[in-house]
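INTERNAL TRANSFER SHEET
From: sequence group
To: structure group
Subject: DUF2630 family protein

Please process the attached sequence and return the structure record in the designated field. Keep the field labels unchanged so the import script can parse them.
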Amino acid sequence: MDQDEILARITAMVDDEKRLRASLASGEIDGVTEHERLAAVERQLDQCWDLLRQRRAKTEFGENPDDARVRPSSQVEDYQS
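Return from structure group:
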């Protein structure tokens, strides 16, 4: 995935988060379902942001950004920027 594809995926996931919150507010889904789905989206978002940071760092230091790889969510969750 290149930088533009990663950013597009991040945008889509942020939109998913908004839809989930709206679905909860309108009563279409319950809080448990919203929480489970949001947790999954947030894990994927963490991975995408991490991949984007890896690609940018590799580019900055003259390395091939295509060598960046998606890391397990357990490794990238709760990173602080």
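Handover comment: The chain has a mean pLDDT of 92. The chain has one domain: 3-76.
Transfer complete.
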